[in-house]
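We emphasize that the prediction below concerns an isolated chain of 727 residues; any contacts that depend on oligomerization or on bound cofactors are therefore not represented. The input was used exactly as deposited, without trimming of termini.
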Amino acid sequence: MKRKSMRSLRVFALMVVALALGGCGKPSSPASSAAAVDSTSADQWTSTALAAVDGVRIVAADDEPEAWMAHGRTYSEQRFSPLASINDGNVGQLGLAWAYKLDVDRATEATPIVVDGVMYVTGAYSIVSALNPVTGQELWKYDPKVPRDFDRHGCCDVANRGVAVWKGKVYFGSYDGRLIALNAASGEKVWEVDTVLDHDRSYTVTGAPRIIKGKVIIGNGGAEFGVRGYITAYEAATGKQSWRFFTVPGDPSKPPEDKAMEIALPTWKGDRWWTSGGGGGGTVWDSMAYDPELDLLYIGTGNASIWNRETRSPGGGDNLFVSSIVALKPDNGEYVWHYQTTPGDTWDYTATQHIVLADLEIDGKPRKVLMQAPKNGFFYVIDRASGKLLSAEKFAPANWATHVDMKTGRPVETPEANWLDKPSLISPGPLGAHNWQPMSFNPTTGLVYIPMQDVAALYVPDPKQRFTGKGNWHMGTAPIDLPENNPGALAGIQAMQKGNLVAWDPVAQKEVWRQAYTTPWNGGTLSTAGNLVFQGSADGRFIAYAADKGDKLWEVPASTGVMAGPITYSINGEQYVSVAAGWGGAYPVILGGVSEPAKVLPDARVLTFKMGGRAQMPTTPELPARQPEPPNTRLDESAVASGRTLYNGHCGMCHGPSAISGSVMPDLRYLSAEKHQIFVGILAGAYANRGMPSFNDTLDAEQVDSIHQYLIQRGRDLRASLGAAKQ
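Result of the prediction step, given as a token string:
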């Protein structure tokens, strides 16, 4: 669509929604002047009204291309910027403007917000920083004091994907399930609410909130830990709960709460999902988008709990609304329509991946569409008014289904998809063909830029698994078990994990170009009117490509793996590109040694670039030279074997399966002599303030000893391999 017509539509949309979104006349003007931003003094912000954002202003975001005032820049979540001062002709002149060190070197996944002369960004453990976007100087910082041993209650590292801003406040979710509002000028807490429905279950918050019509909307994580999914809206001014939408049915012995649950309940069989299967899942842990003209909120829901459908829903069923896109009315959370990408999800094929809204010409007709590339490997184009499927094609290898039947809207499954009674190698695996890393859509090229993953996994049934309490994993699969003392076999598994940047034509439903990477788990994308696509890589680079052809135009080392989506903004006419960098998340934490080819360490920072920037790039961290120090204790073979199973089931999801770490968490093969001596105390909570939780509620003394014996053996194995390598 031409720029002129796009602007006309924006003006019309602004007029339509002005009253509904709280505007009156024209969009709010920025609260701080451009000149003020040049100062490096933090004092100026303490008395200035900031984050003067409302719905009208977000709708008219293209009239302020210098800002990045919402998670996807606009309500449509396209992650496209009209800025073009940095373009395909001069991007080679980019250099580092500044780098800001975040507090905790763990998964860094936030999209910064830049508006009214301030950048707001989050790091691990949900710590919020306000920065001068020109210099990187810290203006204030707020630490919600998430208990460090809360790690055990989340699946995929202690990440946070960012804040939302609205009428002078900054809003974010804390990892332990709180929603907090801060004064944008001072960082002081204004209000706090507990979003957790049931504290006997492991609920977390990792996603960024969205604010629509004066309501802060946030979902929770925890499907791998046996929770019931929901999304909640709170009044932005006070924190009072406005509405809550459940994504799966609750106790089947009680009447459904609303129309949506009346629809969903018959698609579940029996009652095991509630009595022993772990709550149903369907958590809304990331993706949302909003259409102000249709006044519809779109949410993506997560996987079912437990993964094994025969365990949670004997006899089958679609299990609504897991792995679905659901349209709601933002005023009251009322259900409007849904489309389920993976009926009866049995593979962890979440539909929580990035949702993008766009107006496309399909079959010669303009259509208001919603686009998503979820974990299951199919790219979906859906009419966002009706929920009708318009097209679906594979954007990545996927052997679990041949195609999507356009008459029914359902995938046609293959024999390989069935792992409920036998092991099966299935692509994509639980890591997904596309995970949380956001894609972007460029209306100029008409292409979507997807952080695609080519990853297969062996699913092994564990039908005896049931919900066993808070803080324990519940998937219905056997724990991941990597080859030990077999470098060739491990290398083979590593080689199966591939990553690509794919430029996808959503109208023709075909790939236009791609760039290959060493591993999966590469960063989200940003596209710009300068014919550029920016993306960070898992192996520690930040790269710019030509949006139309895919040629690599610029690259710099990033000192760590980059997963988050970049942004761009402009201050005083000078354009900047910024990205939060820091290795972590599901891939290196859960899969451990599989991620070793990335060869990076966590080093959490915000990196910001501009034309002619001359700041020095931070030095890439290196692991200190060390040796395993296993004691000369006599080991019992049966205890070691038992310890291997116990370790993979209870410890491997953080420290890496088969005791091979992915560099984010300590590699327990390298335990020092001192830590071997106090091993029992460590598992009893001695290091809880360092992030190591107690397992007294899960493991008895004999089990702890078996795990310890296994780790001693793994330390000896490593020492032997290191000695052999020196010879």
